[in-house]
Every structure is written in C-alpha cells, then in structure tokens.
Amino acid sequence: MAASRLHSLWNHPAGPKTIHFWAPTFKWVISIANIADFSKPPEKIGYPQQIVVACTGVIWSRYSLVITPRNLNLLCVNAAMAGTGLYQLARKVK
C-alpha cells in the first residue's frame, strides 16, 4: 500500500518530478526566514517587505486553488507567507 501511494505521489502532475513541486518547496525558506524574524524588534521590520510577503501569500493562495494541477504544497506555503507577513505587519503597527 505504501509503495502504491509513493508511486502515485511520484507520478502526480505536481509531484517531485516537476517544477510544480520544487518551486513551492523552496519558497518555504521565505516563510521560515519570516518566522525567524519574529524575535526581531518591530522597529527593524520593514513595511514594504512585509506588505509584499503578505500580498504574495494571499494572491498565490487563491491562485493555487484554481490552477491545474491542484497544488496543495503551493497553497500551504502561500498561506504561511500570508500569515507570517500579516503577523509581522500587526507587530509593526502596534
């Protein structure tokens, strides 16, 4: 059973053999870096950067639901980007 699931993941249109898998996977680095910046003082957080991170996350989250093949990795990474960007903006505003 595990072999068949692995085989179906490998051959999925958004699987590891395609750019549809690797681009969102490497995009996680942006979200991880933004999470690492949670410890920075809000004064050192830039509005333009966080606005771009949040907007990119929102726009691409929506896009990931309408494209073919459906790409949940893209949805998750962009939801994380939107969340971390909005959180950083909220910290900055406070």
TrEMBL record:
Family as reported in the entry's similarity comment: Belongs to the mitochondrial pyruvate carrier (MPC) (TC 2.A.105) family.
Compartments, as annotated in UniProt: Mitochondrion inner membrane
Membrane topology, from the record: Multi-pass membrane protein
Protein name as annotated: Mitochondrial pyruvate carrier
Keyword vocabulary terms for this entry: Membrane, Mitochondrion, Mitochondrion inner membrane, Transmembrane, Transmembrane helix, Transport
InterPro entries: MPC (IPR005336)
Taxonomy, superkingdom: Eukaryota
Organism taxonomic ancestry: Eukaryota, Viridiplantae, Streptophyta, Embryophyta, Tracheophyta
Role noted for this protein: Mediates the uptake of pyruvate into mitochondria.
